[in-house]
Design a protein that fits this description.
This protein is of the alpha/beta class and 271 residues long. Helices cover 38% and strands 21% of the residues. The longest helix has 44 residues. It is a multi-pass membrane protein.
Length: 271
């Protein structure tokens, strides 16, 4: 009992609590966070590869109704015939395209006998800081477009839409938020135009197919979660071993060194 009593000291208890908390975070927060990123990246890369091998399909096969969305078909190329609602333009600000800031131009597109979808026409570069440059209008007549299907982005927390330079501006391409601003119902997914399309602006390319370091980071956090309690146990074992060795090497009580001392000690014990 005495050998492990030092483990109950405040310093050891605090260290053990830190190790337990760190291990808990590794397995419940840090590792799942990185592994979740890896799963999303792998899924997106698979969808991009699939879209490059597959011919465009009619939009209404994936978004048959106004309330439809198609998260499993992101990046799939689709075709749609209809017309732009050009007077309901919204700009996504603070976007980065090819390493430089940009506005992405968003306009609703009414599909013939189908849903109204949000179309990302492409990008324009800001002028004089963050001012909106002149934007060529979209065609007013009926057109057929080819685009990539995209998932609606989460609304930017704490950043409300606002009006500047005569345009409603948002911080993310969230179809529900844009529908509220334009007062036009929009499908849950939106379209991103490919090159050479009616109404197209600067073309936004597809992401590079790179799985990234997320899987290795997740494995590292799992390893840290395993090694932390092992390290604490080894440290405790080493401390116990060192204390046992110190106790064995400690000098005992001094005994008699001469014959007279030994005789006195002997007779003294008998008495």
């Amino acid at each position: 009992m005495r050998r492990v009593a030092f483990l109950l000291r405040p310093g050891w208890i605090a260290l053990a609590l830190v190790v337990i908390a760190f291990t808990y975070l590794c397995f419940t927060v840090l590792a799942p966070w990185q592994l979740g990123k890896n799963s999303r990246t792998t899924r997106e890369n698979h969808q991009i590869e699939q879209s490059l091998r597959t011919a465009p399909v009619p939009l209404k096969t994936l978004l048959p109704q106004q309330i439809s969305s198609a998260p499993d078909a992101q990046w799939c190329r689709v075709t749609a015939t209809g017309h732009y609602l050009a007077d309901l333009r919204v700009l996504a600000r603070l976007r980065v395209v090819e390493g430089d800031p940009a506005f992405e131009v968003l306009e609703p597109f009414a599909v013939d006998d189908g849903p109204t979808v949000l179309v990302d026409r492409g990008y324009v570069r800001p002028e004089q800081g963050s001012h909106v440059p002149p934007i060529p209008p979209a065609p007013q007549q009926t057109v057929t477009i080819t685009a990539r299907l995209r998932d609606s982005e989460p609304a930017a927390q704490g950043k409300a839409p606002f009006l500047k330079d005569g345009f409603q501006q948002v911080y993310s391409i969230n179809t529900e938020q844009v529908a509220t601003l334009t007062r036009v119902p929009l499908a849950g997914s939106y379209l991103q135009l490919v090159e050479d399309q009616p109404g197209g602006l600067g073309v936004i390319g597809i992401p590079h197919l790179d799985a990234g370091p997320f899987l290795s980071y997740g494995i590292q956090w799992i390893s840290f979660g395993i090694l932390a309690p092992i390290g604490l146990g080894y440290f405790a074992y080493s401390e116990l071993k060192a204390r046992r060795k110190e106790k064995q090497q400690a000098p005992g009580p001094a005994g008699p060194t001469t014959v007279e001392d030994k005789i006195a000690d002997r007779y003294g014990r008998r008495r």
